[in-house]
Amino acid sequence: MTTPELSELDYLREIERLAYRVTVEASNEDWLSFAPDPDDATSLQRSVNALARVLRSYHFEGDGCTEQDRPLVRLVGATGLKPGVMLAGMDEDYEEACARIGVDARPEGWALWNTWDDGGLQVTMVVSAVDSTQGLFENWSRGRALDPVTPLPSQVVLVRRGWIGPMTFSPRGVSKTGRGGQPLS
């Protein structure tokens, strides 16, 4: 059986994916460290720890690395709404989508974060954290189950019961809902 020819970029992505899996398995064995290596670390452990520090994630504002005083929001998925850029499966334009959701259209767009409330009910948070959502998508596209920090109250414009779709599922959302990438209906 022959292996498909990979472009240079696809080859690098595959190397990154495999390296990330190595760090996940080291974490599952409870020896991965982002801190300085312990004195008793083996050469392999030191190498994997160094690898993990480099691969940690695609960083963005709100990723929790510098905002450690705010808890993370566990997302099933998210959607970005921007003028002139509408998602497949949406039959309306940006202004119509904003009106349906109940927010004013704005040039920067909106992010829809689909999560659960404290009682386990599905909710969508409409937030102004559009750049953070792009950072989430970058991480999720690499299979990293990363969640953002809880938005500041001034970033939350509206919370609606139920999930608003279509959405991009987070890796956790795929496993938790069992949807496996199936569209939200």
Describe this structure as you would to a colleague:
Helix 1 packs across helix 2. The chain has 5 helices and 5 strands; from the N terminus they run ααβαββαββα. It has 2 domains: 8-55, no CATH class; 77-177, no CATH class. A hairpin with a 5-residue loop joins strand 2 (110-116) and strand 3 (122-127). It is α+β, with helices and mostly antiparallel strands and 185 residues long. The model has no long low-confidence stretch (mean pLDDT 84). It is globular, with a radius of gyration of 19 Å. 32% of the residues lie in helices and 14% in strands. The protein has helices at 8-28, 43-55, 94-101, 130-140, 171-177; strands at residues 77-81, 110-116, 122-127, 156-161, 168-169. The protein has a 5-stranded antiparallel sheet with strand order 4-3-2-1-5, sandwiched between helices. The longest helix is centred in the N-terminal third of the chain and has 21 residues, at 8-28. It starts with 7 loop residues before the first helix and ends in an 8-residue tail after the last helix.
How would the global form be characterised? globular
Mean pLDDT: 84
- The Cα radius of gyration reads 19 Å
**Secondary structure tally, helices:** 5
Helix content: 25-40%
What is the total tally of β strands?
A: 5
Across the major sheet, the strand order is 4-3-2-1-5
Percentage beta strand:
5-15%
Biggest sheet character: 5 strands, antiparallel
Low-confidence stretches: none
What class would the helix/strand composition place it in?
alpha+beta
**SSE string:** HHEHEEHEEH
Total domains: 2
